[in-house]
């Protein structure tokens, strides 16, 4: 490391000033945006208030004109009754009255006999022509309804501007003005009445009616004010771009609306009044209340203003304005500010680059060295030469830290490996008959894996255990492949006879036979004492004793499990079991409280007669849920026996082959389940996560007949298949099993070749195992000299290839 003059880290922070400049400008722009938003809201609110005031004044003017019109036509005496068809020119004064305001849709008279006479201003709105089918030539429409009951007729006259009839239509009508609300309300008032906005029956558009009773109630004069003209009025208001305005009633009915949306935002034009506008009226507390609504992706600010000119409720004005359009002028200024800031930053870039290079270059180098530590490449970690004091010290610290981590990690790894091997040795030490199994399987597996790693063909082409981590992962899996055996009871693993548990229960059976032998002597002497024939009694005694001796010899032979139990032997066993003996003592005395739970209530009728051999309730030990592994990740496919153990004497002696019951066999096989569950509970670092997979599949087959998960070839990785081959070969060649003699090398290979044919072992691995001489290398190291015989490798390879060709 160079000792030249170093620069303090704080001087390198000069480059940070550029960042502070940007932050300062950003703060100013942010404040500008904030106040710009307030100004925009103030401008929008002002536009809202102006529009609301204008609308109030407009409505007030319209109502004033409508009232004046009603007052004017109420003095028109010529319509004391409906005029005749030829009197149309007489309507000119009325037409002049309503033509002065196109918002006045029609004026009409309703008579107390049900007659109705109406003059409609065609130019009051565009919808009038379309509704009535009027032509461009038509200027006025007159509707005249006369008659009584079902004979009432409705005549519609289309007139030009000179009141000349162009055409007319006649149709039956059931319209009676006397039942209309405006008529009824006018009859009960002495002044001009005004209705709430409603839908005109003919025009199908909203409007208001002003009406007055004339001549002691013989007729009513009325004027219809169409609210459709309000839309045009609203459209002429100086609103901001992106705005929409609604005049609506509190029940949500829209009376008029106008829009100032841009062409690109037309799809966001409101068709149905948003409920929030109505809700906003109810909760509005100040002039600045507004909410946001999102419609078709566009955010609008919502505001409402109630209209109450002359203390009359004329509805509510609702305003929506696009927030984007509202902020557009200010955003343009902000954009300009940002562009100026960016230009300033670009001009300062060379300065920034210079100062940041003092920091970035060594930091990058330190990051590279840190990656080496992260990947545990401690030997490659080097110091970084930098003139910045703090970074120089950090570099030295990182090198020292790397050395410390390396030392600590190696000690931890050594401790872990020793602990793993300790577990493995503990399992072997647990039973003198399986001693060395957990140590020898890793030896075979490692030998095969090394050969597979070298091979670069076929299934081994992509096989890679070259890294230390992968090797360690594989070897730990090999060492722990049977760690679950730590929970397997020794008396099950070492069970050499059928009646053996923690001890060989043949001694109990022998004692019962001893009792029966003595009973034979007692029967003899008791017969003599009662005056029996000595010769007859002696013959009976000797015959019975010989039977007992033969029967016990048979039971003892059954207990060894060396031969298959044929049906006739099982039948003889059951017959012998029926022989009885007398028990005088309570069989529950001297039992621990747990064992006592398995026994039924003690019999008080002692002495009692019992069968010589029996399957009793206390021989059944219940299976309890495995709470320790209740959250196991891996599902298993093994069939679980109902009971944990079955110690029944007849049941055990009737085992057809070997010395293990179904429960015993499951308990032994269960070690692989325990292995997987134990290994899955460990928090593995990266590089060791496949240990449960490698260790937990060495009892599976390639065709799904193995255990505990019934995996098939596609589910079993090559390292797991190596583990299976190693486990089988070690088991076949082991000379420390109590239940079998040690097999020779050739016998073991022959059995493995059969397992390959049955697809229990991987054929490619077995071929590699033979051709590379791993079998012989292992044999010379671990087998007895008497076990090592000649193996015809070529013959086995040719046999496998022939089988493969046939398949």
UniProtKB/TrEMBL annotation:
It comes from the Bacteria. PROSITE patterns: HD_GYP (PS51832). Keywords: Membrane, Transmembrane, Transmembrane helix. Pfam families: HD_5. CDD domains: HDc. SMART domains: HDc. Residues 580-784 form the HD-GYP domain. The chain crosses the membrane at residues 6-29, 334-355. PANTHER family: CYCLIC DI-GMP PHOSPHODIESTERASE TM_0186-RELATED, CYCLIC DI-GMP PHOSPHODIESTERASE VC_1348-RELATED. This is HD-GYP domain, c-di-GMP phosphodiesterase class II (Or its inactivated variant). It comes from Halodesulfovibrio marinisediminis DSM 17456.
């Amino acid at each position: 490391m160079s000792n030249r003059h170093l620069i303090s880290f704080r001087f390198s922070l000069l480059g940070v000033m550029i960042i502070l400049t940007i932050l300062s400008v950003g703060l100013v722009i942010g404040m500008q945006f904030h106040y710009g938003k307030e100004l925009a809201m103030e401008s929008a609110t002002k536009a809202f208030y102006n529009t609301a005031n204008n609308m109030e004044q407009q409505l007030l003017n319209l109502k004033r004109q409508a009232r004046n019109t009603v007052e004017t036509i109420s003095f028109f005496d010529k319509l004391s009754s409906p005029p005749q068809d030829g009197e149309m020119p007489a309507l000119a004064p009325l037409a002049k009255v309503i033509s002065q305001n196109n918002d006045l849709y029609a004026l009409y008279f309703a008579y107390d006999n049900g007659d109705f006479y109406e003059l409609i201003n065609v130019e009051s709105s565009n919808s009038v022509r379309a509704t009535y089918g009027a032509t461009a030539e038509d200027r006025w429409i007159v509707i005249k309804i006369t008659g009584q009951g079902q004979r009432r007729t409705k005549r519609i006259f289309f007139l030009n501007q000179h009141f000349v009839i162009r055409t007319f239509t006649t149709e039956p009508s059931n319209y009676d003005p006397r039942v209309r609300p405006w008529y009824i309300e006018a009859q009960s008032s002495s002044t001009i009445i005004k209705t709430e906005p409603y839908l005109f029956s003919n025009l199908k558009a909203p409007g208001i009616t002003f009406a007055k009773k004339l001549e002691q109630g013989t007729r009513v004069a009325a004027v219809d004010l169409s609210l459709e003209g309000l839309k045009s009025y609203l459209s002429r208001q100086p609103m901001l771009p992106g705005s929409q305005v609604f005049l609506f009633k509190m029940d949500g009915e829209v009376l008029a609306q106008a829009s100032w949306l841009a062409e690109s935002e037309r799809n966001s034009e409101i068709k149905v009044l948003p409920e929030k506008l109505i809700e906003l009226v109810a909760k509005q507390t100040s002039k600045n209340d507004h909410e946001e609504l999102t419609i078709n992706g566009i955010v609008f600010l919502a505001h409402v203003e109630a209209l109450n000119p002359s203390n009359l409720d004329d509805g509510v004005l609702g305003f929506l304005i696009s927030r984007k359009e509202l902020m557009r002028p200010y955003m343009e200024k902000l954009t300009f500010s940002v562009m100026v800031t960016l230009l300033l930053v670009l001009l300062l870039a060379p300065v920034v680059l210079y100062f940041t290079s003092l920091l970035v270059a060594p930091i990058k180098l330190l990051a590279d060295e840190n990656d080496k530590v992260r990947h545990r490449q401690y030997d490659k970690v080097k110091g970084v030469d930098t003139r910045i004091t703090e970074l120089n010290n950090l570099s030295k610290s990182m090198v020292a830290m790397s050395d410390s981590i390396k030392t600590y990690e190696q000690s931890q790894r050594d401790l872990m490996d020793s602990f793993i091997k300790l577990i493995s040795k503990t399992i072997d030490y647990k039973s003198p008959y399986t001693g060395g199994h957990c140590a020898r399987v890793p030896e075979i597996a490692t030998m095969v894996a090394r050969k597979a790693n070298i091979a670069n063909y076929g299934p081994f082409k992509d096989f890679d255990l070259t890294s230390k981590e992968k090797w360690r992962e594989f070897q730990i899996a090999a060492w722990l492949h049977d760690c679950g055996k730590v929970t397997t009871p020794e008396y099950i693993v070492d069970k050499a006879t059928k009646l053996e548990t923690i001890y060989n229960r043949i001694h109990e059976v022998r004692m019962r036979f001893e009792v029966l032998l003595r009973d034979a002597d007692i029967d003899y002497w008791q017969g003599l004492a009662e005056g029996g024939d000595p010769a007859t009694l002696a013959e009976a005694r000797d015959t019975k004793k010989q039977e007992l001796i033969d029967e016990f010899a048979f039971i003892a032979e059954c207990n060894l499990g060396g031969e298959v139990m044929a049906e006739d032997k099982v039948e003889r066993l059951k017959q012998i079991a029926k022989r009885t003996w007398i028990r005088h003592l309570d069989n529950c005395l001297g039992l621990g409280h747990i064992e006592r739970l398995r026994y039924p209530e003690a019999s008080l009728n002692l002495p009692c007669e019992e069968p010589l051999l029996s399957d009793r309730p206390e021989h059944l030990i219940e299976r309890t849920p495995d709470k320790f592994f209740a959250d196991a990740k891996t599902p298993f496919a093994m069939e679980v026996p109902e009971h944990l153990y079955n110690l029944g004497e007849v049941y055990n002696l009737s085992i057809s082959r070997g010395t293990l019951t179904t429960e015993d066999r499951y308990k032994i096989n269960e070690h692989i389940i325990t292995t997987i569950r134990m290994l899955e509970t460990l928090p593995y670092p990266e590089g060791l996560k496949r240990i449960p997979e490698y260790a937990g599949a060495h009892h599976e087959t390639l065709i799904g007949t193995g255990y505990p998960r019934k995996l098939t070839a596609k589910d079993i990785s090559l390292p797991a298949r190596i583990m299976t081959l190693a486990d089988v070969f070690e088991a076949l060649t082991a000379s420390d099993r109590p239940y079998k003699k040690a097999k020779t090398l050739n016998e073991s290979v022959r059995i493995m070749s059969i397992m390959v044919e049955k697809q229990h072992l991987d054929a490619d691995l077995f071929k590699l195992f033979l051709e590379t001489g791993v079998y012989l290398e292992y044999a010379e190291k671990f087998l007895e000299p008497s076990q090592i015989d000649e193996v015809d490798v070529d013959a086995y390879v040719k046999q496998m290839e022939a089988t493969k060709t046939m398949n």
